[in-house]
Amino acid sequence: MPKLPEVETVRRILEPQLIGRSIKKVEVLNKQIIAHPAAKQFAGSLSAQKFSGMDRRGKFLIFQLESSARLFLHLRMTGQLLVTPRDYPCEKHTHLVLHLDNGMQLRYIDVRRFGRFWYIDSKETENITGIDKLGLEPFDKQLIAEYLKSRLFQKKKSIKEMLHDQSVVAGIGNIYSDEILYLCGIYPETKCTELSDTDWEKLSRTIPQELALAIKENKMSAEEYLAGKGKEYRNTPFLKAYGHDGMPCPVCGSIFERITVAGRSSCYCPKCQKMR
DNA sequence: CTAGCTTCCTGATAGC
DNA sequence: TGCTATCAGGAAGCTA
After folding, report:
1. Which among A25, A48, A115, A165 could disulfide-bond with A79, CB atoms 3.0 to 4.6 Å apart, if both were Cys?
2. Nucleotide B7: nearest residue by CA–C1'?
3. Do A113 and A149 belong together in one domain?
4. CA–C1' gap, A127 and B4, in angstroms
């Protein structure tokens, strides 16, 4: 559910609500979502800490703490993060509650419990989270055709699968790989070895463009965000290919088809995205 | 090194 | 109505 654009929305909305707030109490309702350190230590380390900033790296959220320790969060499929008044109704599947010094609470809700938190103290290294394995941010100036080509042109895997490889470009998931390949006119199962310089060029331009558009389309107020807490992000109106199987292509009128690529459902236009 | 499969988990939906 | 099967997909773990 949350993809890079939604993670960025969460960051943008929550940062002003958290900066300068300190944590009065930590309630771990489900230990499963705490990846590091053990839940008890996690809770002990976080209490009395003060938030000083919030960043995003790929699909990770990074909470900067005044002590220079950091809190990392990956929302995976169904993670949701809300700042609510203390008497706000408690959602089912709430796994972590941080009581803040202004009477608000930072709550983590996750139906499928795939999301994870890491508390990393200033003496520890961030490899614990896996974040150091991430590749370029989609908006990095180094993300040019030559970078993609040099990283991928020898790969026998499909371009669709490689767009999901977080060690190449961080932040692309199944929805945006469908969108990007549609906009580039590339059939999802095309092997990386079959792509041309024009394809690498198109990909390098489309990746930041499409993700920037998605972030823009995701703009909402803090009130709208809280009100729509359980809202599905998928199938938003600006998506052109993802989930459109059986519907006509807005460019050529052909009917979008759906195939499975590397275990992921993929929609494509059979005319605009020709098989090589 | 890669390919391919499984695991984690719940809820929505399809089919009988 | 009520049961079971399937699918959704991010990322890691496993086997060959």
Report:
1. A115
2. A114
3. no
4. 27
Residues A121 and A149 in one domain: no
Domain residues for A244?
Answer: 145-268
User: Is residue A165 a part of any domain in this protein?
Assistant: yes
**Residue written as token pair 């944590």:** A23
What's the structural domain count of chain A? 2
What tokens appear for A186 in the block? Answer: 């590339």
* Residues around strand B, C-beta < 7 Å: A 32, 77, 92-93, 111-114, 155-157, 263
- Checking each nucleotide's C1' against the CA of A166, the nearest proves to be C11
Is A47:A23 a contact under the CB 8 Å cutoff?
Answer: yes
DSSP 8-state symbol, A88? S
User: Distance, angstroms, CA A37 to C1' C9?
Assistant: 27
Cβ of residue A79 lies below 7 Å from strand C:
no
Residue written as tokens 């707030």? Answer: A21
CB-based contact A69:A119 (threshold 8 Å) = yes
Q: Is the Cβ atom of A116 within 7 Å of strand C at any atom?
A: no
A155 is a domain residue: yes
Pair A108, A178 in one domain: no
Q: Is residue A202 part of a domain?
A: yes
For residue A93, CA distances in Å to A65, A109, A157 come to 26, 5, 37
